[in-house]
Amino acid sequence: MKFIKPFEDMSRCRLNFALRIRIFNPRGQYPRGTCASEEALYLADDEIVFTVVHARPYDQMTSNFPYSEMDWATPQEVRFWASILLCEDAEGPKILLYPEHTTFALLDPPGVDLKDSAVQNELRVLALEEFTNTERLCAPYQLFESEVHLNRQPGFLSSVGASDHVLLRGITCLIKCDMLSRYYEFTEEAIIVACIALEASFSLVVKSLKYSGIDNPTARDAGKWLDDTFNRPLGIDPGDRKYFEELYEQRVMTMHPSSRFGESPYAPLAVDDLFDLRRDLREVFAYLVSGGHGPEFKRRLKERRLA
Q: Measured between alpha carbons, how far is residue 231 from residues 141, 184, 203, 296 in Å?
């Protein structure tokens, strides 16, 4: 395989599709194992966690996007990370992806079979060498074994497109929310980023409701969809409410220090707000992508003797 490094020699590959190797930080929490397809590889063991994705930057795909210096993750990478994150079990350990913002190397794609175990091992050696030879957090990786449904990953990957911009923005925000959550001092900021993911999920729900025949769906229509999908099948009827209405006042007061709810010198938030919102949004995104519930929901039905 042709290994291209340093970045001074990457200009040609940056403009075209290339295999991007990205190391993940030990501050994250990862499912142990390997996910491989023709265009992407995820590998996580005790020594290294990294992905290799056949990718191209946003600004090389279309000229319709606004200028940004915050688009370090390519759409193909986010799509692949989404397919892993959505495999999380709401009642198990959290998949906390912490990708580093730099791609340390590129590979010319021809002849690289990411499903081949020998190729995977060679890539692992490259990533591990980079990880150990540079200044990084010297801490063991936090891995978990089987409390995740990685068997769903291929289905999620096939259902997420690199042009699903709202979904990819929502997933990116969930990932950044998790990254911020590793620092208690940034809990407020983590919740703010999660609220952007909430807005993305709302847009996707509204779009789905339009497809189902509802003209100009409202936040109340979206709230009904949410409860009809996740609560009422479990025998829980919260009544008539808007989409994530219970967080509305907190969101307004957090984003607007002076609002119709008064003046607030700090964000009226609790740590549980972060945990609950992050958990629920992951499940909403997984449902929207797959078109159905995950194993954790089926367990809830069984526990309540409703299935």
A: 36, 31, 20, 13
